[in-house]
Specification:
Layout (H helix, E strand, L loop, with lengths): L4 E6 L9 H9 L4 E4 L4 H13 L9 H5 L3 H7 L2 E4 L6 H14 L7 E4 L11 E4 L4 H8 L4 E4 L6 H11 L6 H14 L26 E6 L4 E5 L9 H8 L9 E2 L4 E3 L4 E6 L2 E5 L2 E3 L7 E4 L17 H10 L4
Parallel strand pairs: 1-2, 2-3, 3-6, 4-6
Antiparallel strand pairs: 1-7, 5-14, 7-8, 8-12, 9-10, 10-13, 11-12
Helix pairs in contact: 6-7, 7-8
Amino acid sequence: MAGRSIRVGCGSGFWGDSRLSTKQLVDHGNLDYLVYDYLSEITMSLMTAARMKKPEMGYAPDIIPSLTPHFDALRARGTKVVCNAGGVNPEGCAEALAKAAEKKGVKDLKIAAIGGDQIFESGIVSANAYFGAQSVVEALKQGAEVILTGRLTDSALILGPAVHEFGWAWNDWDKLAAGSCAGHIVECGAQCTGGNHTDWRNVSDSWWNIGFPIAEINDDGSFLVTKAPGTGGKVAFGPVAEQLTYEVGNPAAYILPDVVADFSEVKIEELGEDLVKVTGVTGHPPTDSLKLGKTKLNGFRSMFAVYFGGRDPQEKECLTSRNVQI
């Protein structure tokens, strides 16, 4: 039986995601932690280019207008924020957020800026190692209210709070894998609540108000996936299972900095409307190396607007454009 649990909501799956998510999760999510995932491989190169033009930039400025109206509510609830908005300049991001907090009358906001992932190499635009959750845990131990990281692996944003709250050992592979699985499912925001669902027609009429995901993680490693009541989208077997396998090459060996997770025996149960339970995750020791993401200029520039995949993509695109959130 599970004992203690924490609720972690994810308000962003990419740089430029809807800013409406924060109010939804703060007001109705009953959260212990609010996380944002802003980074992708191409995002790192864009942030590096931005910092080359303006040294004080290189982070995701979205985090500032997303959080600023909600400092008081977050503190009243005791909700802590963990996000990778720091990009290639976590210190600059922390300075900008601190200034915004002071303007709102919050002068003692405890902000942690975590970097160290960048590698500087001639001819390379960006090079970043993917770190795990240990730095997040250390920042929480030191009392940080907002943690701004560079290129952690996405799921570490959620694993860190779980390790901190439950005291999981760094060699408890099954629990580390389970926490990473919870992070993997919610890290892309509304993808697991119907935003990227194969059967998109079942949810497209409520995309305009789609709910962002909440993981309720138990100290035994099991977890629930849900969303704020009264929001659109859908939390069910299909969307959660699709996100579970998203960007996973080998479900039996999903390699992460903290653990190699095995999703091959995962059990996904629908417990009720918009409530799914996930169990059966196991783990193994991590490899002795880290993933390194590198980008360089190669004489070409690739541009695209938005990709639409799956069934009947033209109809899907029309409905998406009508329901877009800004």
